[in-house]
Design goal:
Blueprint lengths: L2 H13 L14 H4 L2 H15 L14 E9 L6 H20 L3 E2 L2 E11 L4 H14 L3 E4 L3 H14 L3 E3 L15 E3 L4 H14 L6 E5 L3 H16 L4 E6 L8 H9 L4 E5 L2 H13 L5 E4 L6 H7 L7 E5 L9 H12 L7 H18 L4 H9 L2 E4 L2 E4 L10 E8 L2 E9 L1
Helix pairs in contact: 1-5, 1-6, 4-13, 5-6, 7-8, 10-11, 13-14
Length: 417
C-alpha cells in the first residue's frame, strides 16, 4: 500500500470516531489529492537513499544528518500561549542537542523543528498529522490537547512515526494498543485520581460540584475526578459543563450555589478557570475552588486577580524549583526566549530529548530502528525520570497541589513518583 493510501485510510479511521470536541471530516480528504504523487516520490527517494524502511542502510557519506522533529500545538487562537510555551521547550532541546554535535551512527545530527498549528482543533490536528507523515518527519512531539492528539495518533501509527505527548493527558492516548504513542507527563488517571482521593480523604469535602469545558481533556479529567470521589465515599451533588469557550458560568453557578457545595472541581484551562472563580466571588460563594491540569500558571493569577486568592489546583509533575535541573532549565529558557516558563515547556523539552536519546542509542533516526530504543529508554529529564510503561505511558508519574497565596502559586504537596 502506498504512503498516500495508508494515510488516506488512517484519516478516514481517525475522523470516523467522535470525541467530546466536534471533529468534522468535511474537506479533510482533499489534502491527499495534492500529495498522492509526491508521497510516492518521497517513498522512492527514501528507498533509494536509505534502503528499505527499517534496514538501517544508507548511501550517504558520514556527513551531517538532518533529523526533522515534527511539532503540533495551538500556535494561534485561545490556547496559543500554551502552544508557544511548548514549542519553545522543544526548540531549546534541539538547540542544545545541535550545540553538542551529537552523533547518530557515524553522522553528526542536525535537529530541525517542523512546527504546525492545529488551533486545538481535532480536524486541523488530523490534517497536521497527515502533513508531517507525508513529509517523513523522524518523530513528533505533540499534540497539546487530547481532543487533537487522540485522532492524530491513528495517523502516526499508520505511518509508523512515534508521537511523544508532552501535554495531552487523556489515558485513551496510550490505551489504544499502538506501538508509536508515548507520554512524558502523568495522565489524567494519575492527576485527577489523586485530586479526587485528596478531596474526600484530606479535605473532607461533603458536597462536591464539578464543572468541565467539554473538551476531551477537561471532560476526561472531570470524569476521573468524579469516579474517584465516589469510590472514596464522597458525594457529588452537581455536575455541570461549559458550552464551548464561554466565560459566562452564571447558569451553572446558580445550580451549584443552590446545591450548597463545599468544593468545586474544574476540568479545563486557566482562563476559563479564572472567569469561574471571579463569578464565584461575585456570588459570595465560599466553596473551595480546585482546578485540574492547566490551571496553576500565571494566566490564571493575572486573569483572576484578587478573586483567585486561595484557589487550588492539581498540576502534573513536580515544581521545577525542586528538581535538580529545574533552575538551570528556567534560566536557559528565559535567556533564550526572553520570557518565563508558562506551563508545559519542560515536558516539551523532555519529549524532544526522549526522541534524541533513542536515536543516538539506536544509532539511527529511522523510526523502525529507534522505536525499540525509545520503548526501553530511561533517563533523568528536567521534569524527573523519563521511562515508559509497555503501553507508552509515563512510569511513576507525579502530581503537585498548588495554592494561590498573595497572588502567586505556591506548591503544597506532591503525590506519586
Amino acid at each position: 500500500m502506498s504512503l498516500a493510501a495508508t494515510l488516506r485510510t488512517a484519516v478516514a479511521n481517525a475522523l470516523g470516531t467522535r470525541f467530546a470536541t466536534p471533529c468534522d471530516a468535511a474537506g479533510t480528504f482533499g489534502i491527499f489529492s495534492a500529495f498522492g504523487k509526491r508521497a510516492a516520490a518521497l517513498v522512492a527517494v527514501i528507498a533509494a537513499t536509505f534502503g528499505a524502511p527499517g534496514s538501517g542502510s544508507s548511501a550517504l557519506a558520514a556527513g551531517p544528518l538532518d533529523v526533522r522533529i515534527g511539532f503540533v500545538s495551538p500556535l494561534s487562537g485561545d490556547d496559543a500561549n500554551y502552544g508557544r510555551d511548548l514549542e519553545n521547550g522543544v526548540q531549546l532541546a534541539l538547540d542544545e542537542a545541535n550545540a553538542q554535535s551529537l552523533k547518530i551512527g557515524d553522522q553528526t545530527a542536525h535537529f530541525v523543528l517542523v512546527p504546525l498549528d492545529d488551533r486545538a482543533d481535532p480536524r486541523l490536528g488530523v490534517q497536521a498529522a497527515a502533513t508531517l507523515a507525508n513529509q517523513g518527519v523522524n518523530a513528533v512531539v505533540g499534540h497539546f490537547n487530547s481532543g487533537s492528539a487522540i485522532p492524530a495518533s491513528r495517523i502516526y501509527e499508520s505511518a509508523g512515526i512515534p508521537m511523544i505527548s508532552p501535554a495531552a493527558t487523556n489515558p485513551v492516548i496510550t490505551s489504544q494498543g499502538f506501538a508509536n504513542t508515548f507520554m512524558v507527563i502523568a495522565n489524567d488517571a494519575q492527576n485527577a485520581g489523586v485530586a479526587g482521593a485528596w478531596a474526600v480523604d484530606m479535605m473532607k469535602a461533603k458536597r462536591v460540584a464539578i464543572v468541565d469545558d467539554r473538551s476531551a481533556f477537561g471532560q476526561g479529567e472531570a470524569d476521573v475526578f468524579e469516579r474517584t470521589v465516589r469510590e472514596h465515599g464522597g458525594n457529588v451533588v452537581a455536575r455541570e459543563f461549559a458550552e464551548g469557550p464561554t466565560n459566562d458560568f452564571g447558569p451553572q453557578l446558580a445550580k451549584i450555589k443552590a446545591a450548597d457545595v463545599d468544593l468545586l472541581y474544574f476540568g479545563g484551562l486557566a482562563r476559563q478557570g479564572a472567569a469561574l472563580v471571579k463569578q464565584m466571588k461575585a456570588r459570595s460563594m465560599h466553596a473551595q475552588f480546585v482546578g485540574g491540569g492547566g490551571v496553576a500558571n500565571a494566566d490564571f493569577t493575572q486573569a483572576a486577580g484578587a478573586a483567585g486568592e486561595g484557589a487550588m489546583a492539581w498540576e502534573y509533575g513536580r515544581p521545577l524549583a525542586q528538581l535538580p535541573e529545574g533552575p538551570r532549565f528556567e534560566q536557559a529558557y528565559k535567556s533564550r526566549f526572553g520570557t518565563s516558563v508558562l506551563a508545559y515547556a519542560p515536558f516539551g523539552y523532555d519529549a524532544a530529548w526522549a526522541a534524541i536519546h533513542a536515536m543516538v542509542n539506536a544509532k539511527s533516526a529511522m523510526p523502525d530502528i529507534y522505536r525499540s530504543a525509545l520503548k526501553a529508554l530511561s533517563f533523568d529529564g528536567v521534569t524527573g525520570r523519563i521511562a515508559f510503561e509497555a503501553d507508552g505511558s509515563l512510569k511513576n508519574g507525579t502530581s503537585t497541589l498548588w495554592q494561590v497565596k498573595k497572588g502567586v502559586w505556591v506548591p503544597l504537596m506532591t503525590r506519586g513518583g
